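Workshop exercise sheet. Pairs work together: one partner reads the sequence aloud, the other fills in the structure field after running the prediction. Swap roles for the next sheet.
Pair: D.N. / O.F.
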Amino acid sequence: MSVPIIKRAEQQISPAAPVITFGLLVLCLWSMYELSVHGMLWVKMHSFSPSLFASGQNSLPSNLLMMFWATVCQYNFWHFFGNCYFIMVFGSTLETRLGPLRYLLLVLLSMFGGWLILGQETGAGTAIRYVGPGLLTTGLVGAYLNFFQEKKISPGGSLVRTHRIFHEKRDPNPAESFGISPWIIVLAFVIFQVAMHFVVSRSPLNLDTLRLLPALAVLVIGLVTCTVLILAATSHIEGNPLKRLAVQRYQQLLALDMTHEQAVQGAARLLSLPPEQVRNWISKGGGPLPQA
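Structure field:
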């Protein structure tokens, strides 16, 4: 009697839906609806007032509500469209890599920390009010800086190492593997914020989007917060933040009785990385490669 051969079933791993990022987009959409119904009066009523904040006229709950509504408040369609795009790009990437709870902490620190710094830096002597998620998204950009690629990956999957001055053929373009460069997205975000500053600041309602010093401060807050969260979650792994998460995801998937290759592919899919990059990191920082 022959013994039946039992094959291990393929397990498909997909990232969880970025529900918090989706919630932020819904709030921005709702704010745009309110703008279309009530006009600019709604924007002014739900903007952030440094004068009210610094003078102490508002209670703590009132200040927190003012910060929250000012974050999701939109000035016009282009302000809304750009904000939603960058929240989606940076937020969905961060949420799928950090997990919803860590990402929520990052969002709250960037949101309330940004307005707190702006209110303290501006003081009570200004009549300008601020609207939009510019400070929040700046914090997400700071966190996103932790996840830049370590090395170029060719479209075929192999790591690109250049040692010769003269080449018979050019190195593969990494954009063919990763899509658009992350620096281009960050630069586009900066250009968008500068453009919105000039458009919104010319409003007769004395509105603006953000200030330079608070923006730089919340950028650092996002960067440091994300770094600390990753180090706390991957304290036994060495390397850059993206490598730490990749090795951690790989080890977690192995613990679920996956094969080595399934765990590599799953970790790559969860973090939106080329499998070859994950495989290279694991061979250096995740211990010896187990047999499939």
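Discussion prompt: The chain has two domains: 19-151+180-233, 234-292. What would you look at next?
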